[in-house]
Amino acid sequence: GENVEQHPSTLSVQEGDSAVIKCTYSDSASNYFPWYKQELGKGPQLIIDIRSNVGEKKDQRIAVTLNKTAKHFSLHITETQPEDSAVYFCASDSNYQLIWGAGTKLIIKP
Amino acid sequence: DAGVTQSPTHLIKTRGQQVTLRCSPKSGHDTVSWYQQALGQGPQFIFQYYEEEERQRGNFPDRFSGHQFPNYSSELNVNALLLGDSALYLCASSPLGGPISMNTEAFFGQGTRLTVV
Description:
heterodimer; A: mainly beta; 6-stranded mixed sheet; B: mainly beta; 11 strands
């Protein structure tokens, strides 16, 4: 079946530094690539998404890039803050469903 | 706007029992999807409901069934519970009958934590 690989599984960065999370997908028909943030005990929250007709999208400190040829997309968080600490999931659409990566635990060190 | 609401938030059941979880979609959304999230993993797609019918199903056994009501709310039923069914069950809603591949956003509820003992 289709799958999404996400790296790294854990990422520890100094407060104020940047964080980058990378994902690779397998379904060449995928057109929608959301990123979710999940805090402990809560459901996933959509933070940014990108569609296949664009290569990059930015929203304040968060940006996502997409390379459809290579089938990979990345999340970039700049000027990290303590409240950025959470588990981040990438996903891609495939046949009415979202296929999810395994998640990245982002730790912001003070 | 209340967003996606799920009930109950926590539930403890015994092996072999049956459970029903409930979801109310975000206002204006007519499509509901259910996901199972085991501890430390990403969500796994169970099924999606649109116009009161199951439109797509993931790799889950028939013990997992669902229903969508005319007001777009939905239920997830699990029969003959196993210890391995312990997980966070997430409901997601999308607007206007669009599948994810039609570029519609999916909004998630806070989930129902099911523990099977």
